[in-house]
Amino acid sequence: MSTPRTVTVTTTDQGPVIVPEPSWCAGHADQPVDALVDLGHRSAEHPLGRTSDPIGIALVSQYPHGNGPRETGLFVEQTTLAVTLGPDAVRELAADYETAAAQLRRLADWVHILKAGEVQ
Prior knowledge:
By secondary structure, the chain is α+β, with helices and mostly antiparallel strands. It has one helix at 87-117, and strands at residues 5-11, 15-21, 41-42, 46-48, 56-62, 73-78.
């Protein structure tokens, strides 16, 4: 069994705080943290649909000290799509949604496995 990872994050309300960091967390270098409740763990982003022109992104997230739900979940953000398309482009978009659906199912399975391994 591996040693649990920890990270030290400086907050304005608590000062430096040492917190457990899940193995899937991509780190905290790009995440500004003001108060402890803002500290969240985020995985790498997963483009949904075509990588070159995704219809959205998904990432695993957890805010263990947040004011809302604290459990691990999948954050999903759709790109803004407001456009008139011809038949071929509509079929291409439909294929992108089918691909995204399969990707989301795989990510849901991953989150299920991660949650099963969390200490309750």
